[in-house]
Amino acid sequence: QVQLVESGGGSVQAGGSLTLSCAVSGNTYITNCLGWIRQPPGKEREGVAVIDNDGYQSYADSVKGRFTISKDNAKKTLYLQMNSLKIEDTAMYYCAAGCFVAGWKGVNPDYWGQGTQVTVSS
Fold it and tell me: Residue-wise pLDDT tens for the chain (122 aa)?
């Protein structure tokens, strides 16, 4: 019912920036939130950032002040601007539809994208 397609992943040096995009289609009215989830290698999934239908944003403590989630409703696109990237930010990043708690481990939203890899090197 909701389709999510991420793009924008890649490799970047620590301290650099990267912006992820997610094209959202389908019945987006059935979800109250859009967000980003990541899974570092060898670790469980964690919520990164969430934005609800009113534009309210929440972030994991580990990314506060560095990451910004936003959306363009007209373009049906979700974004994650990542600044001051750290090696520990290396993970597969997933666009997600459905509310979850940013910062919590093991989150499992209703809908997922295919993921886009972000690799941060020193």
Answer: 899 999 999 999 999 999 999 999 998 777 889 999 999 999 999 999 999 999 999 999 999 999 999 999 899 999 999 999 999 999 999 999 998 999 999 999 989 999 999 999 99
**DSSP helix/strand/coil, 75:** coil
Among 23, 48, 24, CA closest to 37: 48
Length of the chain: 122
Give the C-alpha separation, 113 to 115, whole Å: 5
Q: What is the dihedral of CA 10, 50, 115, 64, to 10 degrees?
A: 30
Instruction: Report the candidate in 58, 40, 48, 51 with the shortest Cα–Cα distance to residue 73.
Output: 51
